[in-house]
Amino acid sequence: MTPELKQTSEQIISTELIIKKAVEVICGKWRLIIIHLLREKTLRYGEIKRGVPGISEKVLVHELKQLVELGMVDKQSFGEVPPRVEYSLNEKGRTVLPVIDLLREVGQAFI
Amino acid sequence: MTPELKQTSEQIISTELIIKKAVEVICGKWRLIIIHLLREKTLRYGEIKRGVPGISEKVLVHELKQLVELGMVDKQSFGEVPPRVEYSLNEKGRTVLPVIDLLREVGQAFI
DNA sequence: TGGGTTACCCACCAAAAGGTAAGTACTATT
DNA sequence: AATAGTACTTACCTTTTGGTGGGTAACCCA
């Protein structure tokens, strides 16, 4: 255990809170897949949809809305017809990329 | 991006699979809290229950069963009355500890 | 005039996850 | 005889999560 992760009993509650929050942020069937797709470049709604085969539109819209609300993804609508909406992973969203990379390593053993 | 995480389009599908599996393994409202509690020492059922306030017995039993099934936790029953059952995090279970530590860092920003 | 394009919304449904409250088995203790 | 202690099980319920299949607006092009 690294020194800064040592904890007193007083810290345990907040540790639980933080872990629970983090789990909320990264969980869901598609959440990390979407973030991983956005890691390289800004994508339009339709591009994300095609990049995440199997996801329903309802869920995709909902996930994107949540990611924007959480401050992880920036959304830009161009006032065009047909509509053009672009989503990009911002700085806050990028903080979870190491989690994805670590899960890729850890997850291997569970396949 | 570290070199070993560079990926071709052929690898994308398996990457998705691995991420999905990892999410399955670590998600749920209480899963990581339980693992985190078991990080230091073997605990009896009742100790875990008291260590995770708020969890229902049904869910705790179910979670422990799953952790054993996933090969992350070892269970030992002593043939005593009143019963004594001990749970401990094994090597496979310990592979997710770095995920917890990383989530503690990342999660801070989302509180 | 009518279909194509894009990014959604809506009503409804099914499955999974989680919670509640009660009960069980077996023994020791009062 | 009744109670306490331990590690569960069971039936029932609510909430959350995800899926299905339709609809919409606005403009362009044929």
From TrEMBL, chains A, B:
The keyword Translocase does not apply. Residues 15-111 form the HTH hxlR-type domain. It comes from Larkinella punicea. SUPFAM superfamilies: Winged helix' DNA-binding domain. Keywords: DNA-binding, Transcription, Transcription regulation. GO terms for molecular function: DNA binding. This is Transcriptional regulator. The lineage of its organism: Bacteria, Pseudomonadati, Bacteroidota, Cytophagia, Cytophagales. One of its GO terms (biological process) is regulation of DNA-templated transcription. Coiled coil: none annotated.
